[in-house]
Structure formats: structure tokens, C-alpha cells
Amino acid sequence: MRCPARRDTENMSARRTNVGLLVALGAAFATGAMAFGIGSGWNVYVSVSHGVAGFVIVLLAPWKGTIARRGLHRERPGRAASLALATLVVAALLFGVLHSTGVARSFGLVTAMQIHVGAALLSLPFVLWHIAVRPARLRRVDLTRRHLIRSAAIAAMGTLILVASKGIERVAGLPGARRRFTGSYEEGTGDPAQMPVTQWLNDGVPSIDIADWTLTVGARSWTYEELTAFNETTDALIDCTGGWFATQHWEGVWLRELLGDVTGARSVVVRSVTGYARSFPLEDASRLLLAHRVAGERLSPGHGYPLRVVAPGRRGFWWVKWVNEIELSPRPWWLQPPFPLT
Ligand SMILES: Nc1nc2c(c(=O)[nH]1)N[C@H]1C(S)=C(S)[C@@H](COP(=O)(O)O)O[C@H]1N2
Ligand SMILES: [Mo]
């Protein structure tokens, strides 16, 4: 029989491990989502925090393992769900590391990044279930100096492991060392044929008969021929949340030039033939290029023929392809889901 005092301290540290894991998981979800949303240099802080959160989960795993083993012996209901959660978290961590180090980035039809994000999203309902069924409550005693210092030490250790893994990447010459601050790998700069064709979720490349295609901007329509008369150019970098980036020389027309009178408008909605759409702040219209050419060639169907958005400083999902409709709107741009839903 175990001494009650010992049992008590065990439970105490078990509870704190659970709270710590919950905080780390929450931080990993939040920073992961934010890293997808941010295209500017700020992304680096978010991406680094994401890595630290991941390694903190790894650090807490041995303690959690001990707690979980005790729980599993008890044959409580929800055992399968707990195991599913553990598997998904391990998968998210493993494929996150495979992507970020570059050890293995592609597995036939799926990428390490897709498995990483997929496992994380799938784990979310299990995490919520776990919180509901076995709530890990923070107590006053957890906020003493000693425990706060211990938490800071664990976060510092997570940071050290991240720094060490960066060092290993460099020394071992792993591809991970050559990533952009967002964590993306360069693929096909200057050569669009080598640049991945990527869809956010479930869009497919449409086949467009140019004779039937027009671009509607408010009350006016533009034919492909009329638009190709514009040849403003910009060199811009696309950075897909799937984990790649490329700089290309784009040619087309600045969105602002097609808009005409913008009185009363706060945003501009750019829609694809497929229905995929994003709403941009009106002030951005002078920085958004509607491209019909890239690297001196007509756009390929995969890359958005006949017309696509070039949105410097924004992550790839803003670069709407196969554009056929542009609309001014009085609504603010942020009245839309932060990420496309289709
Ligand atoms: N219509 C439409 N446009 C889209 C998408 C999509 O799914 N549908 N995916 C976006 C995403 S996530 C990225 S990264 C870029 C990829 O552009 P590319 O295929 O030319 O490399 O297109 C964007 N434009
Ligand atoms: Mo993307």
C-alpha cells in the first residue's frame, strides 16, 4: 500500500503536468494558426514559439506517459479516445520535426506538413473532449514562485532543444537549415514550371475557354485581350502555408487601376471561377497585381490561367487563381473567416 502523502504529491505533479501540457498544446495550436496567417517578418517569432511549444510537449511526454499508464490500467471509458489523442499528438510532433528538419518532406501523395496539420486538427476534438471529461485544474499552489520558475525552466529547455536542433540541421547539412523565416522551403524561384501547383483545400484546376471568360469588375467587363494590354510588372514572393516559397517575375495590371470610383467601399472581394474568394482591405488595391503572365510566359492552368492575384507579403492562400469577378464592398475585409473554408 502506498503512503497517502506520497500519493498526494504524485497527484499534484500529475495535475501540474496535465496543466503544463494543456498550456503547451494551446500555445502550439495558437502559434500554428498564427504562423499560417502572417506573411510578414513577424512570422519568425510565431514560428519559433511554435517550435518551442512542440519541444515542451516532448519534454512533458515522459511524465504524461507515467500518468497515462496509471489511467490506462483502470480501464475507464474513453480509453480508445485517449489513445487516439496520444497517437495524433505524437504524429503531429513527428511529422512537424520531419518537415522542419527536412529529413522527409514528402510521402507520395501527402506531405509531412499536411500530415502535421491534419493530425493536429484531428486531435483538436479529442483535446476538447479530454478537457471536458478530465479537466486539469490550476490551483493556487501552482502559482508559487517555485512552480513558476519550474515552468520557465521547462520553456527554456524547450528553447534550448530548438536551438540545438537548428545547430544539428546546420552541421548535418539538412535542408531544414535553408528555410525562410516562415519555415518554408524554396521551390522553383524564377521557373514557374518547377513551382508546386497548390490548392488550399478542395479546389481543382478548371479548364477555361478564354473566349467565354471575362473579368467582371463592378459594372464593367474586361476581356483577356484587353487585360493583356496592361504590362505592369513586379517581382514578388509567394509563400504557401504548405511549406514552400518562390519568387517570380509577374506581369499584369494593378487592381487599383481597374476599380474606378471607390466611394463608400472598405474592401474588395476577389473571386475565382471556382467560387474560391478572399476579401482584401481597399488600401491594398494599389499593391495587388492581377497577373496574366509569369516569368515572361502566359500563366499555366495550374498557376491560375487566365488571371491570378499577386499579393506581396501575404501567405499563398490570398493569391486567388482563375479570377473572374472583383467587387467593391462596404464591409470591412476582416468580416470573413481567417482562412478559406473551401
Ligand atoms: N481559386 C483558388 N485559388 C487559390 C487556391 C485555391 O485553392 N483556389 N489556393 C491558394 C493557395 S493555398 C496557394 S499556396 C496558391 C498556390 O499557387 P500556385 O498553385 O500557382 O503555386 O494559390 C492560392 N490560390
Ligand atoms: Mo497554400
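^ MTE complex. Helices lie at 4-37, 43-73, 79-101, 112-133, 145-171, 224-228, 255-259. The pocket of molybdenum atom (ligand 2) is lined by residues 198, 200, 240-242, 316-317 (CB under 6 Å).
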